[in-house]
Amino acid sequence: MTDPGSQRLVRAHLKMRHLVLLVALGKHGSIMGAAHAANLTQPAASRLLRELAELARQSWILPPAGSILRKRLATLFLSKGLEPPADTVESTALPLIANLVAGSDMVVALPRELMQPYLDNGSMVVAPFDLGIGKGIYGLITRRGHRLSPGAKAMLEALREVAARRYRA
Question: pLDDT at residue 40 above 60?
Answer without folding.
Answer: no
